[in-house]
């Protein structure tokens, strides 16, 4: 009753542009992945690189804060190994380098060859 001849002819025809339809349907998913990468993954990778650079740059004499909240001064730092941290006068503890949350103050390079 309300069907026009043009609509009736178009109803049985196969849909044209199959690839374009698939592309249009996938566009929101691609946009979501792009947004997640820009807002979440990229900044997280930057923070991780900065944290690793900070841990690699720890030297003797630096004041560090552990993930447990203990503040101490590094007395021994060997590249790629544990740190020896003095948390109180005469109290030294070994600390895994990855458990350092922050380096509070950077010390001047220590010259072991200088006579006292």
TrEMBL record:
Its main location: membrane. It comes from the Bacteria. InterPro entries: Preprotein_translocase_YajC. GO terms for cellular component: plasma membrane. Keywords: Cell membrane, Membrane, Protein transport, Translocation, Transmembrane, Transmembrane helix, Transport. NCBIfam families: yajC. Belongs to the YajC family. Part of the SecDF-YidC-YajC translocase complex. The SecDF-YidC-YajC translocase forms a supercomplex with SecYEG, called the holo-translocon (HTL). This is Sec translocon accessory complex subunit YajC. It comes from Devosia crocina.
